[in-house]
Amino acid sequence: MRHAKAEQDGPTDFERPLADRGRRDAVEAGSWLSAQGVEPAHALVSAALRTQQTWEAVASGAGWSLAPDLDRGLYAAGPETALDLVRLVPDAVTSLVVIGHNPTVGVLAQVLDDGSGDAAVAASMAGDFPTCAVAVFSYDGAWADLGEGTARLEAFHVGRA
């Protein structure tokens, strides 16, 4: 998932908060995820303020009480580094939510897709990966083995309130 709409300014880019619209959109995305039956066992979230606030709003909308694993490295990570962070998730974790930044999460979603899912869903994700975009994948394997073209794209949604 890409973080929701943030304010243009903050003390630093890392400290930019969500805009009011972003909070509403993230709550809607959480409601949508809950309706899809997504129940994460782990949340890997960039430590930037806007991603933390996105997680809080998504979790609120979904009714989740899971504490996130805040990772400062995910803030500046490129797609390969973000994938490396996911590969470190313990295999006991059966469902994972990742909230990060673009272009990293958009590129990562594209490269993980094995192409076996609904072509219309893949087409909706192609190109732009806007704020509050959520790609839902299924994957049956060890996190350490996750790689290009190894996960099935099940759904794509852009949270908008």
From TrEMBL:
Stretch list, region Disordered: 1-22
InterPro entries (UniProt xref): His_Pase_superF_clade-1, His_PPase_superfam
Pfam assignment, any one: His_Phos_1
Protein name: Histidine phosphatase family protein
Lineage: Bacteria, Bacillati, Actinomycetota, Actinomycetes, Propionibacteriales
